[in-house]
Amino acid sequence: MTPFDAALAAMEHPWRWGTHDCCASACSAFALLRGVDPMLPLRGCYASANEASELIEAWGGWESMTEILGAMAGLRPCAGGAGAIGLHRGGRSHSLVFGIGAGLWAGKSLRGMEVVKTVERAWI
After folding, report:
1. More exposed terminus of the chain, fewer Cβ within 10 Å: N or C?
2. Helix ranges (DSSP H) in the chain
3. What is the pLDDT of residues 22-69, one digit of tens each?
4. pTM for this one?
5. Cα dihedral 11→15→19→24 (10° resolution)
6. Domain DUF6950: where (predicted)?
């Protein structure tokens, strides 16, 4: 399976908080390719935008949450690339995205899979 195939498989479902949102989908793609789910401790813990926001705040914000969850899953920081997971900032919001190659990152949105070119941090 290629990183692009993993992204397509993980992001083909309609948006649903907790199972098919930006974080869950990126982590599902990572798990399909690498066999490790960085979001495992949070699966089943939220089902709405408000619950997701409360959870992120409880973990100390996006940066803190992603660093902690990455470390818990045994991931290490990297420069990015195909098969990596990344923290993307779009405007005032963050999301998790999945590296599909050639400097591109796939992310789940309400419209389906979208491709972005930048991340603030990445792990593998």
Report:
1. N
2. 3-11, 22-34, 49-58, 62-72
3. 999 999 999 999 999 999 999 999 999 999 999 999 999 999 999 999
4. 0.96
5. 50
6. 9-123
| pLDDT on residue 4 | 98
Q: How high is the pLDDT of residue 57?
A: 98
The packing angle between helices 22-34 and 3-11, to 10°, is 140
Dihedral angle at the C-alpha atoms of 43, 46, 47, 51, nearest 10 degrees? Answer: -160
Q: Is 78 left (phi over 0), alpha (psi -120 to 50) or beta?
A: beta
Place of tokens 């390719």: 33
Residue owning tokens 């690498």: 34
> Tell me, what's the pLDDT at 19?
97
CA distance 107 to 94: 11
CA angle 55, 58, 62 (to 5 degrees): 75
Q: How far, CA to CA in Å, does 122 sit from each of 14, 44, 97, 98? A: 25, 24, 9, 9
